[in-house]
Amino acid sequence: MEASVRTLFERYERFFNQSLGGDIDQGEVAALYASDFIAASPAGVMSGKNDERLKQAMA
User: For the whole model, what pTM was predicted?
Assistant: First the structure.
């Protein structure tokens, strides 16, 4: 299981770095998220769905 988790985070890191350079495949990044997820930031906690609104927010 550790190898699977490591692979997931390496993939996530690669996509994040690509997005910083303006090169993002929203479909691939969205595939990293479950159908429903929780996000937390200094502004608060929210739940979301992995749908077109998520892709719009990423853009």
Answer: 0.57
